[in-house]
Structures are given as C-alpha cells and as structure tokens.
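Lab meeting prep.
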Amino acid sequence: MIVNTNTIYDLAAQGKRLDGRSLTDYRTPVQIETSISWTAEGSARVQIGSTIVMAGVKLSLEKPYNDTPNEGGITINAELLPLSSSEYESGPPGIKAIELARVVDRGIRESKAIDLKKLCIAPGEKAWFVMVDLITINDAGNLYDVAGLAALAALKSAFFPKIDPETGAILYKEKTAVPLPLVKEPLPITIYKINGKLFVDPTKEEEETYEARLTVASDPDGTLSAIQKGGDMPLTVDEIAQIIDLALTKAAFLRGILTTHYGKALHH
C-alpha cells in the first residue's frame, strides 16, 4: 500500500495513526521465542506486528585485547537480509545495518551488561568473546526495538559450551549449565517524532516521515545506559524528558513480556 506522507502528518496532528493504534501502542502480536537454534549458544526470535528479527549468540576463545588483558569481549553485528525488505541487497553491511548494530551494542556495552572479567580464563592469554548476530526476517518498521529485545532474549538464553579437558577444544555441540555472566538487562526503546507528536513502534511508512528519533536504553530499575539520536530535526529539552519517560514505560511493557516468556520456559 502506497501512503501519502501528508496523510501520516495530518493524522499525527490529530493524535491518530493509519492502523488505528494510539501513538503509544505497540503492534500485536509481541512474541518471543528462545533457544530456536541448536548450533548457537543462545538464540531468540522476536516478532512485533509483522517485524521479525532473529538473534544468535556464539562464543569463541580468543586472546584478550592488550589494554584489557583480564577481560573478554562482545561484538554485535546486524545483517539486513534481502528477503526482509526490497530495500536491502546482499553484500557488506550498509549504513542502516551498521547503525542498527551500533544502537543495540551501545545499550549493552555502556550498561556493562556482561561481566567481561568473568569471561577471562587466563589473563593476557585466553578469554571468551561473545558475538551476537542480528538477522532481519521481515522489516515492517521499528527494527531497533525488535532487534534490541531479540539481543537481550538471546543473551539471557545463552550457556557456555563445554571444553574438551584433554585438547582444550570447544565442544560446540555440548552446552554446560553455566549461563553468561549477564549482570544487567538493558533494553533500547526508540521514540519517533512526527509532526510534533511522539510515536512508539512506527510502521515502515511512518518511519519514512519522521523528523527525529531518540533511542533510550535502560535497565529494569530505570537506570539509563545510552541515548542515541537520529533524524535531521532537533528535540527540545521538554521533548527529551517526555521521550525518556515514555521509553521507560515501554521498556517495562516489553520486559514484562520477556519475564513472562522466561517464567513459562522454566516451567517447561
């Protein structure tokens, strides 16, 4: 469906959206699945509306960086598959993929979500490095929130693989019962400004009309770990305050769904 930008703008002025949602409602369903891959140490599939992102966690043993000899590391990559949108092409990551990975990475890194010291096995010689791969299955808008939730769900589901005691090789097909040392659980929420109004969970068409956006990553206790702006237009101090309040509310909403999922998973 081709939508005129002016239509979205005019509706925004009235506090309305094309799909009938309020400006601060997420699309449905909001679904989380974890442990969807046998080969990954942790994995998740998250769907909000028609937007679907998968996340996989892989662990490898590497030599620590010289400036942090007693720490492991974390890397986040994003791949926007051509099957998820006609806009995307095969090949090296484009600007949008790099930015998506960077936004998700910042919330996790700045909050110090993973205790990197606990990833170290031998200082200066050997440590675990965590790689999170984000893969888009369908981009119908709001990749930031969906990818952020998928990354957190995958990290929460990750367990260390076993190591062969004789050879020191990683036995990727066998997992231990030891989870990743995840000490904080940051969740990024992106709020968009369209025609002076603040929007949650935009559709693809709404994303194409936004003036500014702000991604706010926060912990369960409301501590902010990262804020990242996008878009060409400025935001006022009052708008930023409103966005942070709204982001914290929406983070609590998505976190509740994640907590419910893990509660059910434990009972199974």
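Slide two material, second protein:
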Amino acid sequence: MASSACQIRTPMQVKKAEFVISNTDIKKCPAPAMPEYAFIGRSNVGKSSLINMLTNRKSLAKTSGKPGKTQLINHFLINDSWFLVDLPGYGYASVSKGQRLEFAKFIKKYLENRENLMCLFVLLDSRLKPQKIDMEFMQWLGEKGIPFVMCFTKQDKLSKSAAAKNLANYKKEMKQIWEEIPPIFLTSSIDKKGQDEVLRFVEKTNKLF
C-alpha cells in the first residue's frame, strides 16, 4: 500500500470523470496510452457504489438492486490522465450459465492482454468469510501474474471488531496459498472510508507507467 510519506500528502482530487466506451472486445478498448485500473467482484459486492464514491460522482457507474447489471467492459477517463474500468463481475446467480461463460471469456482476455493495466481491484464483501470463488479467482490472477489488490467493501455494515475478525480470517486463508499477501484496502461507499488511500495508491502507481 501507499508509504507513510504518501499518506501525509493530500490525495489526488478527481476533478473530471467521463464515460468513454463500453464493449466486450479488447480490440475496441481505448488506446493503451495511459495507466489503467480495473474493478471487479462478485455479485452484489458494491462495485458501482465504490466507483461512484472514489470519483465523487453519484451515477458515474450505474447502480442497481439487481445483481449482474454490469455486462460490458466500461471505460471511464479520470482527470484526462488515467482510465478506471468497471468490469462485469463473476458468480452471478441471476444470469444463465452460457452468459457466465461468455462473461468469463472476455474478462479473462482483457485481464491477460491489456498491457496498460496497472492493477486490478478485487472487491470483497467485508461481512463475509472467505468465499471459494474469490479465493480461486485470486489464485488464477497470481498464476497469470496479473497485479491486484484486495479491496474490502461495506466496512460500515459491521463493527470494528467484526471487521477485524473477518480480515484476520482472510489473511489466514491467503497465507495458506500466498507467500506474500497483496495490498489491502478497507472501504465504505457510505462514509467514504478508503477513498484517500485508494487515490493515493493510484497516484503513486501512475508514476510507474
């Protein structure tokens, strides 16, 4: 995560955020001329709400009470200097098996081939114990050498002690597979917890592009 020196500085301010394109074909994605950060997670993890919170926009990403709303690769240009990508999730119960397989196909192609992808934010529900589908997905990312961070959502939905307990369970589970646990962010779209930390991370990582 961001160093202590970075934490002292005022985080990046999102002054401009605009939709660019939606598609299922990596060839139609914007030219890879800027750093890019993608967000993905299971059904109902709060992805759209988190994206809106990070960008200080109420409806940049479409939120819905119905899981599976995002079915395309959605590119947003932030501050005219980096891309934020809203990816279809995984584990949707409300879509057919054929649709899930189709989603998986173009998501994996994007993740494996998008050369300017600096980091993938894997969203995890703070209220839940480690889920098999999340663990398997992160293991796949590790096998493919795709850089990612663990981003725990809905921190406002449980007490500090419960959140700490669940986080400890995740770390314990991860250590059974990983020599080093990826960076972790704790977030809430309600009280904007984690906004500064995530934006500092992006600002710092942009310099590596």
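Talking points for slide two:
The beta strands are 17-23, 36-41, 73-78, 82-86, 117-125, 148-153, 184-186.
The mean pLDDT is 87.
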